[in-house]
């Protein structure tokens, strides 16, 4: 553990103007406050914040960050308060400590909710000052180094998995690759102990047998580059066990089949030398096509810059090579932290692009599962590059589509997307993008996100925005239906209901806005009796049982203007179409399910609230299902398809349900305008010699 004078001397080495007195006060304060507390290892608890502060000095961070590292656990684990911190160390340090501190212990929540809530607060805090993240990553790294002292294996597993899924990817996104690699390695040891032990043992065997092969290859590269007049540093290493294991899992190969276990780094004086070194290596050894990546001309979103290539050394050995300048190397290893060094005049404001996306996801996410899912997507590592027509670069996860690209450019653009051109050609929105694609998004004024997009988008930002838009639309449409029901309920109240009565009812029901009441009615979260009682207290005395409340005034409610699948769903059992007499089944927190009045399954919904519904004028468009029996001979299927084409109908699905020679029966789902359209199709089918029978399914 670092002693007080050692820690202060470390800071003064790179920042002679640092406030030595404040650093001393912070050290003494954390020692006093943590007192006799101990860690699982048996060490004094204050050794942990001191070691985290030491990690921050390795990054040459400013004095406020060092003080925050020393104090980051005092508010959570001692009697100290944020006000105490502010009084002793100033507003900046207090704000940072508050950001790093877990604001509440949520031990009663399920594991996923606890993780999501901590992540939510953490992301919001670090959006204000990225130093919160830097200290938190140092805190997590030191905790991982001492994780083996925790006795409960399930607790070790939980912490290791959280580190692997959240903190290591966050370290990668801010370019702190040293932290990322060590976190992954330490977490891997606890999550997959058998795989870790096996791969570590195999690597040691290779090390014992190769007779210094890594050093020999590095020396060969250095000689080849020196002969070309380049003065460089070359170092080699084996990839760490987690990196090898991930390649084995991704490629479904054994350890022996992982060919690029060795990686080499070439450090040059300037950018021009980087490209010269690349040329020398490619002319000296054969390079693998498709493995070259230029992150110097096109850096990653986290600022990472380097040339990557793979070579075949000797007869068959594959080796990876990274080429970069010294300045790039420091930035690549310590990322955003390198920009926060004490001497930097212009520091990042914390609101880097990907972080803004994360905050947007936090705002849009509906529940813990959603937040964790979307955040993991947003911080996932594998990326592709795509461009707008004006040349603006956007990085996206592999597998991203045109819709993901639209939301990456701007949330409003994503919401208004109706089409896309990829490299000048109109392509389906679900088309996956490749590296270097130029994407032009076509938008419409009245367009809105579609639920079906969730079937192919991959970015957390897109999924969160789509789900939020669909939820808002669903709430609006259910509230519209609820308002129609409210108007019908009002007719049964023995008084004239005006704005004042509605305001009083909202107070009695502890609701803010009329829309809250309409939504509760539409979603069946409140009974008709409760609404009537809130409007006119005492008016429901002597009323029949609530089971009979579906017997209304006889007026049907129009579903015109509501969207199928949002405001209501069309029952799969009877496939009603505009023109059918319909009835709705309303159940709590579910969209109204619309059935044809003669549906044989209606009896199962007798416990639901029944609504007499009507399509409303100009209601058009639904999927009708037919059961068609054809004569089993050549050409009959083509004749049926011809009838569909003549009647301008789109076939959604066609399924053979029975083969009983000489007949074949199909179930066909058709997009029809209304009942009259469907009836014309049925008449045409029945008139055909190819068709034995046709009826609605």
Automatic annotation (TrEMBL):
Coiled coil: none
Annotated ACT domain residues: 625-697
First-level EC class: transferase
Residue span(s) of domain HD: 45-144
SMART domains: HDc (SM00471), RelA_SpoT (SM00954)
Pfam families noted in UniProt: ACT_4, HD_4, RelA_AH_RIS, RelA_SpoT, TGS
Reactions catalysed according to its record: GTP + ATP = guanosine 3'-diphosphate 5'-triphosphate + AMP
EC number of the protein: 2.7.6.5
PROSITE patterns with a match to the protein in the record: ACT, HD, TGS
Residues of the TGS domain: 382-443
Matching NCBIfam families: spoT_relA
Family named by the database record: Belongs to the relA/spoT family.
Protein function: In eubacteria ppGpp (guanosine 3'-diphosphate 5'-diphosphate) is a mediator of the stringent response that coordinates a variety of cellular activities in response to changes in nutritional abundance.
Protein name per the record: GTP pyrophosphokinase rsh
Gene source species: Qipengyuania xiapuensis
